[in-house]
Records
---
Amino acid sequence: DGGITQSPKYLFRKEGQNVTLSCEQNLNHDAMYWYRQDPGQGLRLIYYSQIVNDFQKGDIAEGYSVSREKKESFPLTVTSAQKNPTAFYLCASSGTGGVAKNIQYFGAGTRLSVL
Amino acid sequence: GESVGLHLPTLSVQEGDNSIINCAYSNSASDYFIWYKQESGKGPQFIIDIRSNMDKRQGQRVTVLLNKTVKHLSLQIAATQPGDSAVYFCAENYSYKLIFGSGTRLLVRP
């Protein structure tokens, strides 16, 4: 099956701990994105990457870090600097040319909670 | 900054009726709009899109209307079914970023 795989589905973080959320895609998409979703709200952009070894901050990047060493993978680390990490995290990918750049396809999400 | 918003947070319809979900956008330079459906605990799923040079686009049981004069977008679902119950988001594409509204929850009554 082609698509975007996020893992784990549920994750718990202790105070002062960094945790990493995995996102893998086999759609051959150049661009990948991380969003945060809080209850009853829309999606807010954390980081995005249009090409391997390059990424840009989104609207709420503070307390998060990413890497893009491979086209297929875009892991997100929630650092201890993020004081309110409890949320639903969504990864997406898209093409980068023509109409393809407009449509983002999403994974199933990771729900992060603080212990 | 640019934003996309929705007028109704919750919409309740009778099964079989038509549903209309509305969205207002503020960035007149956006040239592409997308509707997503999100079921509980899942990621958003692409429904339909429309370019700014179009007024209407139809899919299977869904129609998107775009009114650029008043910066308004709507999603019409014909013969609403229980499986349509979800949160619906509109999004505008602006410089490789999608700007999402807060969503409308659609509840389908049997």
---
Amino acid sequence: AQSVTQPDIHITVSEGASLELRCNYSYGATPYLFWYVQSPGQGLQLLLKYFSGDTLVQGIKGFEAEFKRSQSSFNLRKPSVHWSDAAEYFCAAFIGGTASKLTFGTGTRLQVTL
Amino acid sequence: EAGVTQFPSHSVIEKGQTVTLRCDPISGHDNLYWYRRVMGKEIKFLLHFVKESKQDESGMPNNRFLAERTGGTYSTLKVQPAELEDSGVYFCASSQGVSETQYFGPGTRLLVL
């Protein structure tokens, strides 16, 4: 079955520290991959996406993600975290075509300490 | 350009009552999706409209849920009668093409007491 896994439920980092959120997928073929963020009281905002091409993808708010086919991973990174990055982060995927429903990971809640 | 909007933002109802959620997609987006996040669980797909037609409703939990998209514009999701396990956040998303990025609304937080 198709699945997306986010191994870390909760992560705490200090402001200014680097961040890496893990995401692994299990699909028969390479899916389209996404990272969304949900800040407190807000909806889901798209951070970045990977459809094809360059495996290092730049997104908004200084985030980037790297697609690694050999590891079935699409990890999200940020060199220096800001207190406003505290939120819940979701990795998601779909195959495309008629199967365009997104499959989400369980989410990683990021806490930022000052 | 306005994003995806959802109404209401919150709803508290008693078990057995009916609730209708509304979603207005981004203008021009033919594809509209409903998702749900039950407390402590992952966000799960409910159904997908292409214009006014249901493309995929494989995620609808049971026949207490009815989704419509008359005229291919806004969509409603009705829960009748509501049960305790229906509590959660209902998200709507839209996309221009079927294999394109989905943009999400703020969600409707439903609490069934």
